[in-house]
Amino acid sequence: MIREKKKQLRKSISQKKKLYPVRQLTKWSSSLLSKLENHPAFRQAHTILLYYSLPDEVQTHEFVERWSREKQIILPVVKGDELELRQYTGPQDLQKGSFGIEEPTGELYDTPEQIELTIVPGVSFDRNGNRLGRGKGYYDRLLPQLRSYNIGICFGFQLSEEIPSEPLDRVMDEVWTEEGKVSKK
Q1: In this structure, are residues 184 and 162 in contact, taking their beta carbons and an 8 Å threshold?
Q2: Cβ neighbours of residue 38 under 8 Å, at least 6 residues apart?
Q3: pLDDT tens sequence across 163-182
Q4: Where are the beta strands (DSSP E) in the chain?
Q5: Would the pTM of this model clear 0.90, i.e. be above it?
């Protein structure tokens, strides 16, 4: 029952994403990330786990590049059923990996407990911090290995009234859209 609800929610959000041109998603991405830059957890963090966005996600490419000059930016790399962590060293060290995602090719980052902040993408979030991912469970397996503060980010139209959750699903500390913080936590 829960899996079917999640499947339907993914389909619904996928349809909504098609309603917005890339130009609009880029504008919202810029607004969201400029607000997030002022978050105390972001400003204080030295090591941040981010993601290199797909075209239908909050666009992080410029953000990753800009902040990699001041902070240690870690990006996930899909390896089988797990996410490996690697340091971002520049666009020249990226290659297309699983699912067409640009992934870093540098050294393995083997001290995940030192990550202070994790910015997590999602298909949808609710205001209680529940997250709906793409269904593979990568972040649900990764997040318990970290001690970071976790902020989920998405566009406002991706917010849902309620995300059905299962025991292994990881709840975010906060959820942000282009409007700023939207979660109740």
Answers
A1: no
A2: none
A3: 988 888 889 999 999 999 99
A4: 47-49, 72-79, 82-87, 94-96, 102-104, 117-121, 124-125, 131-132, 149-153, 174-177, 180-181
A5: yes
